[in-house]
Amino acid sequence: MSTRRAVRVDWRTCLSLIGAVLGALAVPLVLTAGVALFYREPTRPFLLPAGLTLLVGAALTRFERDELGLREGYLIVALTWLAIAVVGALPFVFAESGELAKPVNALFESTSGVTTTGATVVEDFDAHGRSIHLWRSILQWMGGLGILVIAVALLSQLRVGGAQLMETESQTQDVNKLTPNIEATARLLGWVYAALTALMVASWLVLGFLGVAPNVTVYDAVAHAFTAVSTAGFSPRPGSLGAFSPAVQWVTIPFMFLGATNFVLLYHLTQGEPGRLRESDEFWFYVTVVLALTGLTAGFLAVSGQFETAEPTVRHALFQVVSILTTTGYATVDFNVWSPAAKHMLFLAMFSGGMAGSTTCSIKTLRWVIVAKSFRRDLFTEVHPEAIRPVRLSGQVVDEGVVRDVYAYVLLSIVVFVLLTVFVVTDAARAGVTVTEFDALGAAAATFLNIGPAFGDAGPYGSYAFFPRTTRMAFIVLMWVGRIEIVPVLVLLTPTYWRS
Amino acid sequence: MRIVIVGAGEVGSSIAASLASSHDVVVVDIDTDRVETLTYSLDVLPVEGDGTDVETLQSADVGDADMVIASTDDDETNIVTCGAAKVLGDAFTIARTKSPKYLKAWERSQHAFGVDFMVCTDLLTAEAIVGLAGMPTAQDVDTFADGLVQMTEFEIPEESPIAGQTVAEADQFDSLTFAGIIRDDCVIIPRGTTELRGGDEVVAIGSPESMREFSSAIAPEEQGPQDVVIVGGGEIGFQTARLLEERGFTPRLIEQDEDRARWLAEHLPNTTVLNSDATDQDLLDRENVGLADVVVAALENDQQNLLATLIAKRMGTGRAIAVVDTGDFTELFETVGIDVAVSPRKVTAEEITRFTRARRAENVAIIEGDQAEVLEFEIDTDSILVDRPIRESAADFPEGVVIGAITRDGEFITPRGDTVIREGDHVIVFTETDVLDAVTEKL
């Protein structure tokens, strides 16, 4: 880099690479246009953005490309998600139907898609065609894949080192490299992701074939598989998973669960090495949290007599807990009407998240495991002040610096969450909209932690459309910040990042 | 045999003393005085010079030697000496090393560095400590046949319930043989009617489980140790903790240096590492070291070890084991109240001597005072034991020999009069030193 340039970040390379990503976005847009053609719906909302993104992409790739450093990694991760969100919003705008035609709503829906959040501003589901609903699902599937690999796979194809990117995607996760070649790793994870999606489509269709899923079409199976494995949660149906039979609901639970399981461990599982999964402290923590919250929720539901019999009680408790905890955001019932105790179990689940190295969002079990272990260690050293006891994760010593980073990240998440809640309440008061304390807490968590449905009007069968425009814009920013794990964005805001 | 010993320090001299009477021994040392002093007391040929120097080795006539033992205090010197000796001739080379890092490399390919046999002082010492810590009355522990068989020397306390019993009464364990009794520095070969007395040292051979059972029969009120505190996190302390972890213990380890303590904590998942001065009374009180079953002192020097174990003893620790660098201090330590003093040099010298004395034997243990040995042999067709019941072949043996245990295809077999020994069996034999050569020949 020449010394004449004031900015020490190689933004040219970044823009060039983002251009490549934008160009690639034309592929899913054209494919969706094909689906629109099939359903005799307008193809213009997809073909027009496809042309635009190709054009802009081609223009950006003209910037000279150089070696990629750590600094550029932060910028690329942050900007890629923004760029995809903007392009993803275009079909909604061009479709000119329903609430989604408004630019802020379109950007909200698109950001909620690529960040695999699942919060929606759609109030009238029938106002939009099947192709638009499919586009919402595709955005989420790409978002999930992106979180796993896109950044890595694409960049390595362009012959640039991507290991640093893996770091920004996952500050603390020990991405156990499967192969020294990061491109091959990305491809492997991509295949696991695609295989899980295909398996889910197949399982729904088999249920339909067996006659226990009467209203399942190929369209439903694909649209939901896209949003379940990516732990994202959009559904073309206003009733979400409540529109389907209990059998379909049961079958969907494991796919959400697996979507939030470390994909490296899943890959080892497919290679006949279940040992890695069995020895993972984080996996057992994840399982324990899911089962414990399910047990509590089912208990509270039984006490309040929400459901007549045991099967629905257990099914709805397990489904909702898995859906919220893995940050998917499907619902089989309107949990707004549940007793406060049961609802608060779901509120708790929001802060857990699934395992690192998956498509899940939120704080993630990896961080909670380290916090729990480190705290237990601190209690031990209270009694034995001289004792030196490293924090161990699955037998490996965790560096003290990492432990500190994890604490800082958890604290930062909570602080941002509280600030957002306060903003939601004050902004609603300013605009004269009624938002209760709990609903504000829920909406802040559901967007910032990329879960989707919250409580109250923004509940599973509701929409975020009623929030003031400023609040929706804040949600857009924080969905983005939450998805790329806060730090990359904050780093971009520091003056030293841009200087030497 | 012609044996060249390089290094006339404590280990080298001690090996030379054991071997000089029956072999031609050449001792090489860089220090003239040391070599000369040695020649006054022993019948050895002195050579002055650097053992890593090929010319020195040539003047010691290493080319014609059967065995070269490199036993200086420096690991690298010893390894280089072995390598140089291999260049000059075909002697069997033995290297003494302190750090286990060379052992790790050597174990991968057993001829690495031109070393045919490597003796790792720190590891041997740790093994000795762990063996001693495991059983409250054990004085010495050795394992044979890949750990299937164990030889233990027990001291029978005066108040022990088995003091006063005959061997037949005391021996209620299936897979255990009373091989010998040492009373007033004399070896007694036990018969069923021999009476056991307090103060006797009993050499028992058998399975490790039966050893533990016997140990608790000797001193029933003393359970096996639960709580072991190791003081000093050097290589010996680390290896001791590691071996204890392997045996299911969760020891505590006190180390003064913070960086080292952190390293230890990272490498010993089941050990509580405490970063403190081992002689800090407040810490010892707070950590209830007085209630510990065993305290092992493995600090930098003998004075610190003595101090640490004496403090622990005064606080009420059950058993104190101290590492003693200066071999002469072992008895002194035991006189002032330390239960067992382990000398790394002595342990090493013993190991090398054993190995040299009975090259035919797979494994050897020397009983305290050098009066008897326990040897492991693989039986071949020439052995007088092969394909005969023990009752018959015993007649051909000299007095003072006991067959302690047999292993066949990884199984433990308790020897009885009618047991028939086959080719390929491993036999663990207790023998008095006087008849050692005769026994080695016949087996």
Q: How many independent structural domains of chain B?
A: 3
Please, how many helices of chain B?
16
The helix content of chain A, as a percent range, equals: 55-70%
Q: What is the 3D shape of chain B?
A: globular
Name the largest protein-protein interface in this structure: A-B, 10 and 16 residues
Whole-number average pLDDT of chain B?
83
Indicate the overall shape of chain A. globular
Supply Rg of chain B. Answer: 22 Å
How do the strands of the widest beta sheet of chain B line up side by side?
A: 3-2-1-4-5-6
CA-atom Rg of chain A in angstroms: 22 Å
The arrangement of helices and strands of chain A along the chain is HHHHHHHHHHHHHHHHEEEHHHHH
Low-confidence stretches of chain A: 151-179
What is the makeup of the main sheet of chain A? 2 strands, antiparallel
Q: What does the average pLDDT of chain A come to?
A: 86
At a glance:
The complex is a heterodimer of chains A (500) and B (443). Chain A contains 21 helices and 3 strands.
Can you describe what's shown?
The complex is a heterodimer of chains A (500) and B (443). Helices cover 65% and strands 2% of the residues of chain A. Chain A is mainly α and 500 residues long. Chain A has one domain. Chain A has a two-stranded antiparallel sheet with strand order 2-3. In chain A, a hairpin with a 2-residue loop joins strand 2 and strand 3. Chain A is globular. In chain A, 50% of the residues are buried. Chain B has a six-stranded parallel β-sheet, sandwiched between helices. In chain B, helix 6 (121-134) crosses helix 9 (235-246). Chain B has three domains: 2-115, NAD(P)-binding Rossmann-like Domain (Rossmann fold), CATH 3.40.50; 225-347, 3-Layer(aba) Sandwich (Rossmann fold), CATH 3.40.50.720; 357-442, Alpha-Beta Plaits. The interface between A and B is medium-sized, with 10 and 16 residues. Strand 1 of chain A pairs antiparallel with strand 14 of chain B.
